Hints:
This protein is of the alpha/beta class. The chain is about 60% helix and about 15% strand.
Amino acid sequence: MKLSCIAILPQIYENKRKQVLENREIINALIEITLFLSQHSLPFRGHRESWDERNKGNFKDLVILIRKFSPELAVYINHLKTKGKSEVNYISWRRQNQLISSVATISIDTTFDSSKREQLAFIVRYVSFKETSPVICERLLALKESSLTTGRQLFSIFQDICLENELDWRSLLVGQSYDGASNMRGQYEGLQAFIKEVNPSAVYTWCYAHRLNLVVVQVASSSADAVNMFGNVEELYNLISSSKKRIAFYENTQKENRPAERVRRLKRVNTTRWMSYSKALQTVLNTFDIIIDTLENIKVTEIQLQKFFNHPILIY
């Protein structure tokens, strides 16, 4: 049974990929129609818009015209006619209003800053029609401090930010993306659940960057060599960063040997921080000779201190 299921999975993934591509072609055509009508100040809807009407309104008539040159759109219109309400309708009056007003998605994440305070980053992703073709833009809209990170508290902060920036998230928000924490993706008490309760169109997607980070961490943890290597990198960080004298020697040696380059600092390996593995290892590789000099200095200094404290007079 398990082997037979494995053979079906590639077909499911392939069908899903094709469906995504077809949907993108359909939406691109609808966006172009929206731009054309807007640029020429033409009305979108007609008095009656049923498929039997001769004049269905400018938007719907242009959809019918464009389908002659778009196989994906033609197939979709045929399905829409035959299946009716059971098919997702991209050309309804509500979807037309969303296209006219543009649409947006949000991404929210929380993290501790250097002062150990919880900071919430609010990012909005939207479609801009200022250029000749639609352009996807991302903006950091707000950075808020929050001592509580429950789903309900985050939803309250989300509402406040949207109110401050006059964002109509109840009708224009079509997507939300967070990490996999329970306060974010929880089915009942997660932030996405509270938003979808008010706006069902705001589809939640588990952030692929977070998922990729989890995969990388698991892959690195499955190799004994990788575990040992990053363990040594972490021990190296603890050894040098635990003493101000060692840090000073490490940084001063960089200034003397590489005056034209910026001074680097060792990074610690942290599984909850993105790219921490890469940054920590890259710093070690870029300053490898400096690290060797620092370790030699630590060795010589500690031997001298050990001899000093083992002097017969001090022992007596």
